[in-house]
Amino acid sequence: MATSTESKPTELNRPAEPLGPLDLAAADEAIRADFILAVQKLHRAQVLPFSVNSNGSVRLPSGDGILVSSYGLKADIGVDEFGVVDFEGRIIRGALGPDVVHALGFHLEVYRAHPEVDTVLHAHSPAATSFAVANKPLPLHYEPLVFLGQRGDIPVTKYGDRTKGSKVSDEVAAKLAEHPDTKAILLANHGVLVWGVRPIPTADFLITVEEAATIIIGASALGGSRPFPISAGTA
User: Fold this and answer.
1) What pLDDT is attached to residue 168?
2) Is pLDDT above 90 for 50?
3) How buried is 26 (Cβ within 10 angstroms: 0-12 exposed, 13-18 middle, 19+ buried)?
């Protein structure tokens, strides 16, 4: 079982051990079902073209830990393609692929900073990740983000090498402390991290982040996007 952040990726980031049924409480099974529906919705919206490198998690309502996708957010993700970790990231049940183990620290930092959050999604959606690799925050120039609760630019971390222990997680923690009201963070040179309450609304937010990034990139050909009163802090 892959449990070290120094593990080398296997083919398609699949865990070394076969996955089997997870014994979950009824409420935990329900949120897993919602999570699977959210992943399918993201694929229909074409937000996950590079799904092998994406991952997600949900806080189990039973309090038994955090359910984490074992590898990638595939359109056909199955009910047994998950592991369960405790709140320190130790694997309790199931298995996690090496790249998911690398990313688990991002999720844990969000759960620690936001006790109300029960869903975290990490993706490499093309437009939002374009801002991440440019090391630029995503400006709040697209009104639908405001309707979904975003109240400022989506910040970008400093670059953190994932092969060096908790470096990226430290950068995520720093941005969470600096921007306590944001619902997303861009990971420099890497991807996007979003969170929320319940899987499907969180997926809707990720879709809207990608939509905003796409439109703002398109607006650059017309002289660039512009702020409006809420994003400028005057409303």
Assistant:
1) 85
2) no
3) exposed
Alpha-carbon dihedral 35, 176, 225, 125, rounded to 10 degrees:
-40
Q: Is residue 119 a contact partner of residue 35, using CB atoms and an 8 Å limit?
A: yes
Planar angle of CA 116, 140, 52, nearest 5 degrees: 65
- What distances in angstroms separate CA 37 from CA 31, 73, 175, 203, one per listed residue? 10, 11, 29, 10
Q: 89-132, pLDDT tens digit by residue?
A: 999 999 898 888 888 999 999 999 999 999 999 999 999 999 99
Q: Which residue has the tokens 């430290």?
A: 170
Dihedral angle over CA of 101, 107, 109, 113, nearest 10 = -160
pLDDT, tens digit, 9 for 90 and up, residues 167-185: 889 999 999 999 999 999 9
Rounded distance, CA 235 to CA 187, Å?
Answer: 29
As given in the structure block, the two tokens for residue 41 are 């919705």
Amino acid at 167: K
Given the structure tokens 């992943």, which residue do they identify? Answer: 39
Residue 198, number of CB atoms within 10 A of its CB: 16
CA 178, 180, 181, 185 dihedral sign is positive
| Structure-token pair, residue 133 | 């690799």
